[in-house]
Amino acid sequence: MAGPIAVLFDIDETLVHTGDSGRRSWAWAFDQLHGVAADIGKHTSAGETDPQVGRKTFHAVLGREPSHDEMARLYAAYLWHLSEDIWDSKGYRVLDGVEETLRRIADAGVILGLISGAMEGAARIKMEPGRLGRYFVFGAYGSDSPDRAEITRMAMAKAGRLHGRDLTRDEVYVVGDTPRDIEAAHAAHATGVGVASGHYTVEELSAARADHVLTALTEPFPQI
Description:
With 224 residues, the chain is of the alpha/beta class. The protein is 43% helix and 14% strand.
């Protein structure tokens, strides 16, 4: 069986653990702009996109829907704080096996891309301390769409344009740590690879019908 032509990675808890830098930065933004305490973990779940996180938390703590300009200011404040906090986050780390896996995939002639529910700016910031941005040719982000399946389809389309044709399910692997990543991969007609490096177990990722499940990226990557 031939291996993938493109491999698309989630960021949070798949490539890096930020030490809750994102949670602190959302809380700071809500406090600065609205003077309210906000904990995104109480109002959202793993795998949701930044626009979903921001809007759901806003509604929960302020009791109404945000306007477009309120969300724009919230995004700006969040990104500003994240860009500072990430460098001081004691819990920040690149997860085990990540760099070795990325180098192995790239050396095999497979193109690497990102699929992240984070806004593009946040995604880039989260990878900076680990210097991981240098591995990825392109990406699709939560700022492109609030829907993870649509983000995945956009990333697949970019991979296809780089390769010169549309890619099939067996030619695109989507790697993530949550059932939402697997669901999005299948909705976009890609192969879903679950990695139990976050909050979900091997059993839970298998139950989400992942095509392949790894306990960590220290294990051999499928078909590479």
